[in-house]
Design a protein that fits this description.
about 120 residues, alpha+beta, five-stranded antiparallel sheet, binds adenosine monophosphate
Length: about 120
Amino acid sequence: MDCIFCRIASGTIPAEVVLDSPLSLAFRDLSPVAPTHVLVIPKRHIAHAGEIQPGDGDILADMLICARRVAEFDGLAESGYRLVFNVGDDAGNSVPHLHLHVIGGTPMGWPPFAQQ
Ligand code: AMP
């Protein structure tokens, strides 16, 4: 399977890596929507958050710990940040490899969806 985020995880295509753990990789989004926009991915291919299985808890915990460390690294721990998993078309999911968006560095509105 040709998966762009698997290729980033294996180092065969470049990314601006922020953090590298045994289970996860964090790199900056190519099209940032905020001053900090980092994607945390599992190194093992999982298609999306709807495919998570009970045995994947170690991966999810590692991704969340990476997200916290990214937020600390970018100085967001006090000001706050948003963690997002997009699933499916209505959410705008475009890359079929699980990724957690870490977004911050600016105040963000709620609810997050744009007016159609
Ligand atoms: P999603 O809409 O949740 O599937 O988000 C996919 C994200 O991946 C988007 O924010 C893209 O800008 C980002 N993206 C796609 N290709 C790359 C890449 N090669 N390096 C970094 N970010 C990417």
